[in-house]
């Protein structure tokens, strides 16, 4: 499993996300990103970065009352169409870096982990139960490399649906024979993955250091 020893730098991106995240935890239907923060983002990263944050906010607030299948579709399409795929080495100068959704959107770029993490947190904020969602490590057989997707379980023993940035249609796992599941996790647990059902629980997700550090960065108060 991936691990890192050093903490990622704090800054404006983390501050913006912390404010957004804490407000969403309160489920404020009239929530709006702080204008001063948005102005700071625009000044440092440009108008497109600010607009991506506003579009993300609108996606969450406008989608909370939708059926879950429509939430999945909108969130999957939003990130796949809004953000460019860039490797961590090129973007962060690190072999493996898990970005917060705000880092992902402000940069306008990220890799497969960042797509999956952003989709996960966005769907949770739209009201999808954490128990139905797993961030899932797989082997992409056609590419012969590690890959990450988000999976959705309508029920614990259901065949999961796969939300991916490589093949953008949401499909049942049985239709994604190009992916070999390895393990999955969410905010509460870690599982050895399989194509149907939730798999064997092997502990808490806090065993994954990159995930723990990501959550720590997200919950830091605005600077």
Summarize this entry quickly:
This protein is 42% helix and 17% strand. It has 223 residues and is an alpha+beta fold.
Question: What is this structure's SSE topology?
Answer:
Blueprint: H1 12-25, H2 35-45, H3 47-63, H4 68-82, E1 84-85, H5 88-92, H6 101-107, E2 109-110, H7 112-125, E3 133-140, E4 145-152, E5 161-163, E6 171-172, E7 179-185, E8 190-192, E9 200-203, H8 209-219
Parallel strand pairs: 1-2
Antiparallel strand pairs: 3-4, 3-7, 4-5, 5-6, 7-8, 8-9
3D architecture notes:
- It is a single chain.
- This protein is an alpha+beta fold and 223 residues long.
- It is built from 8 helices and 9 strands.
- A hairpin with a 4-residue loop joins strand 3 and strand 4.
- Helix 1 packs antiparallel against helix 2, helix 1 packs across helix 6 and helix 2 packs across helix 3.
- The longest helix has 17 residues.
List keywords for this structure.
disordered N terminus, 223 residues
Helix content: 40-55%
Low-confidence region ranges: 1-11, 13-31
Q: List the strand order in the largest sheet.
A: 6-5-4-3-7-8-9
Could you tell me the radius of gyration in angstroms? 17 Å
**Percent of residues in beta strands?**
15-25%
Separate helix tally = 8
Average pLDDT figure: 80
Span between termini: 31 Å
Tell me, what's the shape? globular
Order of helices and strands: HHHHEHHEHEEEEEEEH
For the largest beta-sheet, the strand count, sense and barrel status come to: 7 strands, antiparallel
Instruction: Describe the oligomeric state of these chains in a short phrase.
Output: single chain
Structural class: alpha+beta
Based on DSSP secondary structure assignment, what is the total number of beta strands? 9
């Amino acid at each position: 499993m991936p691990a890192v020893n050093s903490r990622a730098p704090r800054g404006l991106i983390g501050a913006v996300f912390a404010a957004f995240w804490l407000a969403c935890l309160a489920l404020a239907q009239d929530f709006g990103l702080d204008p001063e923060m948005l102005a700071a983002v625009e000044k440092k990263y440009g108008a497109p970065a600010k607009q991506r944050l506003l579009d993300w906010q609108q996606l969450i607030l406008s989608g909370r009352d939708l059926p879950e299948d429509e939430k999945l579709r909108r969130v999957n399409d939003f990130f796949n169409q809004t953000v460019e795929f860039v490797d961590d080495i090129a973007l962060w100068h690190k072999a493996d870096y898990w970005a917060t959704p705000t880092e992902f959107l402000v940069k306008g770029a990220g890799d497969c982990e960042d797509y999956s993490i952003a989709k996960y947190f966005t769907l949770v904020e739209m009201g999808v139960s954490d128990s139905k969602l797993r961030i899932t490590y797989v082997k992409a057989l056609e590419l012969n490399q590690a890959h990450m997707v988000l999976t959705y379980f309508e029920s614990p023993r259901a065949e999961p649906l796969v939300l991916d940035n490589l093949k953008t249609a949401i499909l049942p796992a049985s239709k994604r024979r190009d992916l070999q599941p390895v393990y999955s996790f969410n905010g509460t647990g870690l599982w050895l993955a399989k194509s149907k059902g939730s798999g064997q629980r092997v502990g808490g997700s806090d065993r994954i250091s990159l995930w723990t550090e990501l959550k720590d960065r997200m919950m830091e108060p605005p600077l």
